[in-house]
Design goal:
Number of domains: 2
CATH topology of the largest domain: Glutathione S-transferase Yfyf (Class Pi), Chain A, domain 2
Number of strands: 4
Oligomer: single chain
CATH architecture of the largest domain: Up-down Bundle
Low-confidence stretches: none
Distance between the termini: 31 Å
Radius of gyration: 17 Å
Bound molecules: glutathione
Largest sheet: 4 strands, mixed
Length: 209
C-alpha cells in the first residue's frame, strides 16, 4: 500500500469526501491540517496554489474530484461498469456543484452588511437551492437503478458519500431538508450504518462547512 497524506484546511468543504473514502476503506493516512497562518508560505509549493492536495508516496495530486475518483477506483467505490461509473460521477459532480452554489451564497452573506438582505440570501438558499438539489438527487436515485438503497449498484460508492456530505451541510441549514425525500433520507441512514464510517462520523464535530 502506498503512503497517503491529505493536506487540507480544518473544514469539511472540498476535502471531506476524501476523508470519508479513507474512513470507509479503513485506510490509514496522515491528515495535515493547514491553518490560514501556515497557508501563505505553503501555497506556492502546491501544484495549483490550492488545496486539497493528496500526496501518494510523496507525489502531489491536486483537484478534489480527481483525487476522489482515484481513491474510489483504488478502494472499489467507483462503480463497476462504464455506465455505473458515469452514474456515480454524475452524483459526485452534482454534489460539487451544490457545494459551489452553497459557498457562493455563504460568501455573499458574509460580505452583506444589511441584516434583512443577509437573511433573504439565506432564505433563498434554504427555500429554493436546497430543494432544487434534493429534486436532482432524487431523480438520480430513481433513474440509476441502485439496489439496497444505494445510488448505484448494490454497494456503497462515492455517490452515496458525496450525497451524504453535501446534505450534512444542507441539513445543518434546514433540519427538514429531506422531509419530502424519504429515499434520500434512507440513503443517508444506510451510509451511516457502515461501521468504519460510523466511528469516523461519531468523532467528527458538527459544522456547517
Ligand atoms: N477545483 C479545486 C478547487 C480548490 C479550492 O477552491 N480550494 C480552496 C479551498 S476549498 C483553496 O485552496 N483556497 C485557498 C486559496 O485559493 O488560496 C478542487 O476541487 O480541488
Amino acid at each position: 500500500m502506498p503512503s497517503y497524506k491529505l493536506i487540507y484546511f480544518p473544514v469539511r468543504a472540498r476535502g471531506e469526501l476524501i476523508r470519508l473514502v479513507f474512513a470507509v476503506a479503513g485506510q490509514k493516512h496522515e491528515d495535515e491540517v493547514i491553518t490560514m497562518d501556515d497557508w501563505a508560505s505553503l501555497k506556492p509549493k502546491m501544484p495549483t496554489g490550492q488545496l486539497p492536495v493528496l500526496e501518494v508516496d510523496g507525489k502531489q495530486l491536486s483537484q478534489s474530484s480527481a483525487i476522489v475518483h482515484y481513491l474510489a477506483r483504488e478502494f472499489d467505490m467507483a462503480g463497476h461498469s462504464n455506465l455505473e461509473q458515469c452514474l456515480v460521477t454524475q452524483v459526485v459532480e452534482t454534489a460539487a456543484d451544490a457545494f459551489n452554489e452553497f459557498y457562493e451564497n455563504y460568501k455573499l452573506q458574509d460580505v452583506e452588511k444589511d441584516k434583512d438582505k443577509k437573511e433573504e440570501l439565506k432564505k433563498v438558499f434554504v427555500n429554493e437551492t436546497i430543494p432544487k438539489f434534493a429534486r436532482i438527487f432524487s431523480t438520480f436515485m430513481e433513474n440509476s437503478g441502485g439496489e439496497n438503497g444505494y445510488f448505484v449498484g448494490s454497494k456503497l460508492t462515492i455517490a452515496d458519500l458525496a450525497f451524504h456530505d453535501i446534505f450534512t451541510t444542507f441539513i445543518y441549514l434546514n433540519a427538514d431538508a429531506l422531509k419530502d425525500f424519504p429515499k434520500l433520507a434512507a440513503n443517508r441512514q444506510k451510509v451511516e450504518e457502515n461501521d468504519d464510517l460510523k466511528q469516523y462520523l461519531d468523532k467528527r464535530p458538527e459544522s456547517l462547512l
